């Protein structure tokens, strides 16, 4: 891939506020999925396709840009969308075998994979102090779910699926960084959501799951998943890829285990241990130091 230059660009809003909004939004994902009784692959496909439906009325504003997309960009969009759809399929399938905390903790390895990939693709080097901050944050994120790790029975299957889903989303993030240098966040997000959603839809048809026969409560959850963690989470992170390195955006996603734990305490009456509280503080310190080093 062509090397991407890091240019000085500014935003109207402080990046820290935008990152907080994105982290809070994606933290609702696990809560909404837990409330749904639909199959995991149905939740994933409907989440993406409902998002596409919501975004489509505004697509006419970006039609001139759509017509300028070349063949090479379409190939990257295809791989990015397939990676995102595969991430959702593997991650939500992992929850059938292992716990939410365990699966989410494994996903915290994403910044490491993105950092290595960004070095080979963009020649983006990360300082030693930033790497140390990354390890501190990852340690904190994994400690949040450590007490819920299970190695007996079929739990290892869920852990493997979660690891593969982490690799898939890392590829999606690196491709997104490349495409966002010449493509708007709206157009990029619309295409990858459409491709990922159609992949999952085909999977559901092959499995034989019902596509439409779900009650109003389930469709409300699909809608909330589309609006909160997807539009205010993934789309926002896709937008930030133009202003931040892919590794830094991936580091911000580490806040999801902490946010999900707090929301589970408030909405699901789940308990928070002192170890989890200390781990959350460790995670925030690590992410903060990393972003400061990479600024």
From TrEMBL:
Recorded topology in the membrane: Multi-pass membrane protein
Keyword Transferase recorded: no
Main location per the UniProt record: membrane
Assigned keywords, A-Z: Membrane, Transmembrane, Transmembrane helix
Subcellular location(s) of the protein: Endomembrane system
Transmembrane residue ranges: 12-32, 44-63, 75-94, 100-122, 129-149, 155-175, 187-207, 219-241, 248-268, 274-291
Presence of keyword Cytoplasm: no
The organism's place on the tree of life at top rank: Bacteria
Residues of the EamA domain: 17-145, 157-290
GO CC, any one term: membrane
Similarity comment: Belongs to the EamA transporter family.
Full protein name: DMT family transporter
UniProt organism field: Paenibacillus albiflavus
Phylogenetic lineage: Bacteria, Bacillati, Bacillota, Bacilli, Bacillales
């Amino acid at each position: 891939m062509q090397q991407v230059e890091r240019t000085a660009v500014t935003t109207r809003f402080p990046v820290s506020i935008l990152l907080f909004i994105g982290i809070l939004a994606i933290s609702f994902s696990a809560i909404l999925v837990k409330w749904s009784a639909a199959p995991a692959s149905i939740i994933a496909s409907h989440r993406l396709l409902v998002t596409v439906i919501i975004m489509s009325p505004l697509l006419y504003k970006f039609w001139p840009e759509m017509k300028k997309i070349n063949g090479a960009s379409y190939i990257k969009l295809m791989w990015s969308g397939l990676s995102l759809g595969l991430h959702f399929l593997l991650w939500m399938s992992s929850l059938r075998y292992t716990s939410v905390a365990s699966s989410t903790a494994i996903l915290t390895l994403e910044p490491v994979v993105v950092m290595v990939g960004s070095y080979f693709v963009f020649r983006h080097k990360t300082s030693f102090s930033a790497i140390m901050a990354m390890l501190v944050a990852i340690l904190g994120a994994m400690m949040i779910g450590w007490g819920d790790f299970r190695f007996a029975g079929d739990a290892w299957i869920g852990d493997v699926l979660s690891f593969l889903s982490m690799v898939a989303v890392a590829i999606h993030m690196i491709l997104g960084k490349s495409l966002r240098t010449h493509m708007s966040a709206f157009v990029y997000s619309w295409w990858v959501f459409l491709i990922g959603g159609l992949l999952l839809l085909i999977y559901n048809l092959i499995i034989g799951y019902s596509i439409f026969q779900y009650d109003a409560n389930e469709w409300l959850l699909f809608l909330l998943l589309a609006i909160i963690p997807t539009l205010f989470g993934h789309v926002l992170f896709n937008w930030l890829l133009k202003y931040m390195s892919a590794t830094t955006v991936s580091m911000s996603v580490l806040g999801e285990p902490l946010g999900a734990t707090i929301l589970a305490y408030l909405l699901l009456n789940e308990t928070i241990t002192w170890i989890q509280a200390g781990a959350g503080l460790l995670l925030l310190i690590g992410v903060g130091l990393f972003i400061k080093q990479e600024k």
